[in-house]
UniProtKB/TrEMBL annotation, chain A:
InterPro entries per UniProt: Class_I_gatase-like (IPR029062), CobQ_GATase1 (IPR033949), GATase_3 (IPR011698), Lipid_II_synth_GatD (IPR043702)
Catalytic activity annotation: beta-D-GlcNAc-(1->4)-Mur2Ac(oyl-L-Ala-gamma-D-Glu-L-Lys-D-Ala-D-Ala)-di-trans,octa-cis-undecaprenyl diphosphate + L-glutamine + ATP + H2O = beta-D-GlcNAc-(1->4)-Mur2Ac(oyl-L-Ala-D-isoglutaminyl-L-Lys-D-Ala-D-Ala)-di-trans,octa-cis-undecaprenyl diphosphate + L-glutamate + ADP + phosphate + H(+); L-glutamine + H2O = L-glutamate + NH4(+)
EC number assigned by the record: 6.3.5.13, 3.5.1.2
Pathway(s) of this molecule: Cell wall biogenesis; peptidoglycan biosynthesis
Organism: Limosilactobacillus oris DSM 4864
Protein name: Lipid II isoglutaminyl synthase (glutamine-hydrolyzing) subunit GatD
Active site location: H195
Record-level Gene Ontology MF annotations: carbon-nitrogen ligase activity on lipid II; glutaminase activity
TrEMBL record, chain B:
Active site: D355
Protein name as annotated: Lipid II isoglutaminyl synthase (glutamine-hydrolyzing) subunit MurT
A single MF term (Gene Ontology): carbon-nitrogen ligase activity on lipid II
Catalytic activity: beta-D-GlcNAc-(1->4)-Mur2Ac(oyl-L-Ala-gamma-D-Glu-L-Lys-D-Ala-D-Ala)-di-trans,octa-cis-undecaprenyl diphosphate + ATP = beta-D-GlcNAc-(1->4)-Mur2Ac(oyl-L-Ala-gamma-D-O-P-Glu-L-Lys-D-Ala-D-Ala)-di-trans,octa-cis-undecaprenyl diphosphate + ADP; beta-D-GlcNAc-(1->4)-Mur2Ac(oyl-L-Ala-gamma-D-Glu-L-Lys-D-Ala-D-Ala)-di-trans,octa-cis-undecaprenyl diphosphate + L-glutamine + ATP + H2O = beta-D-GlcNAc-(1->4)-Mur2Ac(oyl-L-Ala-D-isoglutaminyl-L-Lys-D-Ala-D-Ala)-di-trans,octa-cis-undecaprenyl diphosphate + L-glutamate + ADP + phosphate + H(+); beta-D-GlcNAc-(1->4)-Mur2Ac(oyl-L-Ala-gamma-D-O-P-Glu-L-Lys-D-Ala-D-Ala)-di-trans,octa-cis-undecaprenyl diphosphate + NH4(+) = beta-D-GlcNAc-(1->4)-Mur2Ac(oyl-L-Ala-D-isoglutaminyl-L-Lys-D-Ala-D-Ala)-di-trans,octa-cis-undecaprenyl diphosphate + phosphate + H(+)
Ranges where the Mur ligase central domain occurs: 54-174
Function: The lipid II isoglutaminyl synthase complex catalyzes the formation of alpha-D-isoglutamine in the cell wall lipid II stem peptide. The MurT subunit catalyzes the ATP-dependent amidation of D-glutamate residue of lipid II, converting it to an isoglutamine residue.
Highest taxon above the source species: Bacteria
Length: 234, 445
């Protein structure tokens, strides 16, 4: 058994489940095992009770629009606890439709603009040409490292004032065709259009794990974890 | 028939003969030419045939070909599109290349889901056969419910056509329709109370949007579903698998309606394909014995599986294109009682689907139940595949970026048999190399 234990919530993991987000969770478990951490994962979905204090990590993934709409119906029952989770600086990864869902508004499967969860300040819209965006994506993060991935999304996203981009687009499209940004960061929430982002970018997995450890074990010496070098996988 | 249609049909027929002689294959070019002359050429054939349209993500080709074998026992003129050319021009080509039937013929057409509406415009089928709907390549045009809506557009134009559908797929029972319904499914196991694995697509009750449960699951999200919230459940079955007596990686012995059939390839998905063909054939009045004969004499119809002898080794090549394809293949491979090695070849060109995130939803870990001595991942996206296996806890996984080199590398493997589970582009690369070394015929795949 590892020295540290973290509990992960896979939010709507049986609904937003089409684009390999189990891979993000496998990455957190894999790097966790190298950092002396056991990561346990649990799906938290419609009608499940959710208490922010029970979880150290969270992933909300990419999926189909029909299932996104069902998750949206359930959001009010978890809204306040999710807000608490975010405001308490806990790490959350939101990908694709999960990213859109957390914002102010997005476009649903019928082409209608709907109010999102309202937990973050971005909004998502149809691109001007209404064509889905699929491309290899490379972004330069504020930490200096480039992240690599594949984007596959049908909406463009514009960030709110209190959000920073995950990175600046070097190759591909990213959030939209206008501002060269990709993804969003608010406190320790990381949003992206890159599917299975953690599998090619272990650096982000490590950041989330160390953030979660520092939250849960404030007195622990995390030097070995911080010094751990991530090998590239792309 | 209009003058334009006759000209178009004549030109199409002529170009079919020419192309067939030159290339020994028809392709869909004659249909394309005829459609240029008369875009409505298909009207020309609407009274010469009864029609059946087969649609669904997986199994269309196999179910169609099998049903045709069985239907031929009763109907003298059965036409189908055997090359998997399921777009409008491919279908036009089929009609043009066929001799005119003496009396009314039967056409069983595999039609791409999005094209059903375009075909039904020209003729009203006697029946639709719907096999299943899964997420295919992960592009944004193929969301399950959007695909189903497009299929329904075609169905609504033919309200008298009987819908023969897989009852185990919840999506086919999500909308009330005026059409007569015939349902087929598995009925060989006791009922419990299960949920599908969390990464299964489409597990929401279509009526009340709660997560559906299952009495049992056959694979993916297929099974005897019921909604614990609103009571919506799998419809009563008209044709059923009453027993699966034996399943190996090479064949299955099953009973449909208590009558024994031997299915000459492995995999539960092929039992579904055979059941779809059986259901259509029974609906069309073919007896069980004739269907049994048709199945047994048609092993080549099944699946994209190819066995290649390389010295004293055997390479079994199985093409996959999505997560459900991989999982059903893994379940089949696991029934092999002989030792084997395993290779997964990942490519991400447009023909394969450019988004490889589906590999993370495949249950490769299930292979650990088997003592497999040699793993290999390869092809152009070998790094993603290697990461998938590494994070999944596999150690000592070999890597080979070039699919052609599998022909040499099979020699280093400790088993006689190697399963190569491969995406389309990597399969083409491997088959090209096999053909160059005269290990297979170099014909069209």
């Amino acid at each position: 058994m590892a020295t540290y234990q973290l509990q992960l919530a896979h939010l709507y993991g049986n609904l937003l489940n089409t684009y390999g987000d189990l891979g993000n969770i496998m990455a957190l478990k894999y790097y966790g095992s190298l950092l002396d951490i056991d990561v346990a994962s649990r799906v938290v979905s419609v009608e499940d009770d959710f208490k922010a204090a029970d979880y150290d990590l969270m992933v909300i993934g990419a999926g189909q629009k029909f299932e996104q709409s069902i998750a949206l119906e359930d959001i009010p029952s978890k809204h306040d606890e999710l807000a608490k989770y975010i405001e308490n600086n806990r790490p959350l990864l939101a990908v694709g439709e999960g990213y859109q869902l957390l914002g102010q508004s997005y476009i649903d499967q019928h082409g209608n603009k709907v109010a999102g969860a309202g937990l973050l300040s971005h909004r998502s819209e149809l691109p001007a040409d209404q064509e889905p965006i699929q491309d290899d994506l490379v972004v330069k993060t504020k930490w200096g490292l480039n992240y690599h991935g594949h984007e596959n999304h049908d909406l463009v996203t514009y960030l709110g004032k209190d959000e920073q981009p995950l990175g600046k687009v070097i190759e591909g499209v990213g959030n939209n065709q206008d501002d060269d940004t990709e993804g969003a960061i608010y406190k320790n929430v990381f949003c992206t259009n890159m599917h299975t982002v953690l599998d090619r970018n272990g650096d982000l997995a490590k950041r989330m794990l160390i953030t979660a450890l520092a939250n849960k074990y404030p007195d622990a010496d995390l030097t070995p974890q911080r010094e751990f070098k991530i090998e590239p996988t792309y | 028939m209009s003058f334009k249609s006759s000209v178009a049909a004549g030109v199409g027929h002529l170009s079919y003969s020419v192309l067939h002689d030159v290339f020994n294959r028809g392709s869909s070019l004659p249909g394309l030419i005829a459609l240029k002359i008369d875009p409505d050429i298909l009207y020309h054939y609407k009274d010469r045939y009864d029609f059946v349209i087969v649609g669904g993500t997986n199994g269309k080709t196999t179910a169609t070909a099998l049903a045709v074998q069985a239907l031929k026992q009763k109907y003298p003129d059965v036409l189908y599109n055997p090359t998997g050319s399921n777009m409008k021009r491919g279908i036009a080509t089929i009609f043009m290349s066929a001799p005119k039937p003496k009396k009314k013929g039967l056409a069983v057409l595999e039609v791409d889901e999005a094209n059903i509406v375009r075909i039904v415009k020209y003729f009203k089928p006697k029946a639709f056969v719907f096999t299943n709907l899964f997420r295919d390549q992960l592009d944004r045009y193929s969301e399950l419910y959007a695909t189903w809506d497009r299929m329904l557009e075609g169905v609504r134009m033919a309200p008298n056509a009987t819908i023969i559908a897989n009852a185990d797929d919840p999506i086919f029972n999500s909308v009330d329709l005026p059409n007569p319904r015939v349902w087929y499914g598995f009925d060989d196991q006791p009922m419990g109370d299960l949920e599908a694995p969390s990464n299964t697509d489409g597990v929401v009750c279509p009526k009340c949007h709660h997560i559906i449960h299952y009495g049992f699951i056959t694979y993916g999200g297929l099974g005897a579903y019921f909604c614990p919230n609103c009571g919506h459940k799998r419809p009563e079955l008209d044709y059923r698998v009453t027993a699966v007596d034996e399943m190996t990686s090479a064949d299955s012995t099953v009973k449909f309606d208590d009558y024994e059939f031997k299915i000459p390839v492995g995999g539960s998905y092929n039992i579904y394909n055979a059941l779809a063909a059986y259901s259509l054939s029974r609906f069309m009045g073919v007896d069980q014995e004739a269907i049994k004969t048709a199945f047994e004499k048609s092993p080549e119809i099944f699946g994209r599986q190819e066995r290649v002898q390389i010295g004293d080794k055997e390479m079994v090549i199985i093409m996959v294109k999505n997560q459900i394809g991989v999982d059903t293949v893994l379940d089949m491979i696991k029934t092999d009682k002989e030792p084997f090695s395993f290779a997964f070849m990942l490519t991400a060109l447009p023909a394969d689907g450019e988004d490889t995130s589906w590999i993370w939803d495949c249950n490769f870990e299930t292979l650990k139940e088997h003592d497999i001595p040699y793993y290999l991942v390869g092809a152009s996206n070998y790094k993603d595949a290697a990461t998938r296996f590494k994070f999944g806890g596999f150690t000592d996984v070999n890597v080979e970026p070039d699919p052609a080199k599998l022909i040499d590398r099979i020699k280093e493997m400790p088993t006689k048999r190697l399963y190569v589970v491969t995406c389309y582009t990597a399969m083409r690369q491997l088959r090209k190399a096999l053909a160059e070394q005269k290990l297979i015929d170099g014909g069209m795949e």
